[in-house]
Amino acid sequence: MGIIMWIIFGGIAGWLASIVMGTNKNMGIIANVLVGVAGAFIGGLIMSYFNKAGVTGFNLYSFLVALLGSVVLIGIFKLILK
What we know:
- The protein is mainly alpha-helical and 82 residues long.
- 76% of the residues lie in helices and 0% in strands.
- It has 3 helices and no strands.
């Protein structure tokens, strides 16, 4: 995927993760993109632990992996900052 697709993909995944975790009011578009891209990386690491593929492109499976990683990342931040 190109850099523009990573930004769009990360933004959507980060935004939905922030809604799921209840942090949407505190996050802006830049934070959502950063959380989504980092979440895709974390989701890929989690899936590799289970011998599954990580983010493979712009598809539903990759989106769910990125969403999982983003939710985990926000959860870790919430635990640290509490």
